[in-house]
């Protein structure tokens, strides 16, 4: 068919979408044919949630194919490389998921989350129409080339599912680079590297290792020349991708830090009785790690974007150091350096409602740092953190990073060159820290290196770090309900708006305890409602959490077994 034979822009009988030159841009016939091979199960409705789509892997083939299609459109619209990550993070091994990564390595824009949901749920026969609708609504320039970068975690289903993403990309004529196995933050890094034309770093795994390791080595130069003996760290890798990547990377920074890997995937199941989510939610050590008294350990989650630390004291008591305490350590170090350079750069900390009340109090009252609370999900924290010269954000579960504004980076670089002695030293440290933090998303490997550097430089033991403040006892529970969307919230998810009566019930329960707080919200990654409670003792916290769970069960359509007392 020559261009002369083609109709004006619009659908042509062959099913092509024609541009104004009469050339086909989206071969909708081919899409329809391919889509049959990635058929949507009848009646399945999925939502692009806190971190993309997540459910049992066997239900995701069509979603993967369609996210390949969507990534092409997003790439054309933004004239940039777009990322697709196949992972379900801390969820069980049988689950999987997919999320798109925007040009600067950040989470997909909210308006495109809606397009993603529409596309994923479209019935087979409506798929071409929905693609055209999205292209029109988002003013996608279909003449543009598209480039998609793809990564996946170690789940058995991930390889096949990422092939379905590739099928989606290629059927719409997109180019792609399949990185294969990557941690989620590595994929975010690759996207930003490509779109910054290499300014952020080299878009290879090697480039990532080199960038982070040289920043770590530079930052810790002074600490390690004095023969420090606390430079061994035990890492629980959740039987996930973190193990592979850390094993590849560790020789790059081995002079400064020796990491011992546990739950490296050679035996155990992904995230099963191990990993950051298990440790944080059960408040106990993972299986499969050998702990020695007062030696610090950390856990990654299944895709290595979260990290929590912990240790056993001499009495065998377990101490968890979660995202809140990580944020506190990092902010106090940054604040000291900012005082040294004395340049009036603003520092802010962003948390969610899950942050322990003690951490918020410590940051505001002792450290005098402004603290903000956003809705759960890194995209909310990330956006808020961008409002500061230096924005520290962490979820209590250990997902977080630090963002430096362009202006702050320029200022720091200038001071590192021009100023004198102490000021220059502080500026140089900040310069290395900018490189060491993943500026796109929370990154367990990068955070681990930052923490290890700070502990070494400050000569802090894990106990001293832990002693910054004492966590209020807290408890998280899950309640099964028929439809979790019956719950809607406001005030950064701290107050329930619907169903009626639930917030009043929570208020009455909270009043019964001292130093208490509780809230509920529908999970964006699991089909459950999450309950959070905090109070003056673990016993009271557990009672409060149980009572609130019961209120949710009764007022929000609980299904299955009623919540039980005792954990
Ligand atoms: P949901 O399932 O929406 O609570 C969980 C975490 C989030 C975030 C996402 C993405 C908690 C309470 N929630 O979201 O913070 O990390 O997973 O992985 O930890
Ligand atoms: Zn994760």
From TrEMBL:
Binding site for Mg(2+): 89, 301, 303, 305
Signal peptide residues on this chain, from the entry's feature table: none
Recorded GO MF terms: magnesium ion binding; phosphoacetylglucosamine mutase activity
Pathway assignment: Nucleotide-sugar biosynthesis; UDP-N-acetyl-alpha-D-glucosamine biosynthesis; N-acetyl-alpha-D-glucosamine 1-phosphate from alpha-D-glucosamine 6-phosphate (route I): step 2/2
Protein species of origin: Ovis ammon polii
Catalytic activity: N-acetyl-alpha-D-glucosamine 1-phosphate = N-acetyl-D-glucosamine 6-phosphate
Tagged with keyword Coiled coil: yes
Official protein name in the record: Phosphoacetylglucosamine mutase
EC code: 5.4.2.3
Cofactors named for this entry: Mg(2+)
